[in-house]
Amino acid sequence: MRASTIFATAAAMVSAVSASAIPAFAKRYNVTEAWGSWEITNVTISNHPSSDSINFLVWWDNGYSGPVTCSASDYSLGSNTTWRRCEVRDGHADSFSFNINQNFDQLSLSQDLYQIGSIVHLNGSAPLNITWGYSTAGAEATVDNFYIPVTSVSYTLPNGTVSAPEYSSRK
Question: In the record, which residues are listed under signal peptide (predicted)?
Fold first, then answer.
């Protein structure tokens, strides 16, 4: 065999193995729309001189899975760089993280789906339409239930390679 034939055969085998590691479900459909969205419910936010806090529930699979509780309390809750882990439910390897921006008007969510052969990383964000109630001690807020669409997806393959994110035009 010629060297070029051996190289072409090896490259084809690597491509086939890499392609088979991406779930077939994701390959057949518009990638981000196929993953749907998360429903965010029971949102409460407080803003006091000594600390800030946020609590909410995350549902997925059209409301058939969940909820996972996400919460955080600290003085500098609104940060564009700090991601906080949500609770881990027994029997669920899905891990959620969230971020709320400095203006408290955007919530970002990330979910890692651990599957045989690869890890799927889902990301999305949506505006927070907050209704504030003020008092002398600070402010309490509520948010109506809303959805965060999956707007990007990437994969970690078994060999540790991370794919480039695929983005959606959905808002």
Answer: 1-19
Domain contains 30:
yes
110, containing H or E segment:
strand 106-115
Polymer length of the chain? 171
17 lies in a domain?
no
The answer to the question of residue 15 being in a domain is no
User: Do 122 and 113 meet the contact criterion of CB atoms below 8 Å apart?
Assistant: yes
The CATH number of the domain where 75 resides is what? Answer: 2.40.350.20
19 inside domain: no
Q: Does 29 score more than 60 pLDDT?
A: no
pLDDT category of residue 78 using cuts at 50, 70 and 90: low
State which residues form the domain around 106. Answer: 24-167
Distance (Å) of CA 105 to CA 38, 79, 98, 108: 17, 11, 13, 10
Q: What is the pTM of this model?
A: 0.74
For residue 49, what are its two tokens?
A: 């001189």
What is the domain count for the chain? 1
Cα–Cα distance measured from residue 61 to residue 66, given in angstroms and rounded to the nearest whole number: 8
DSSP 18: H
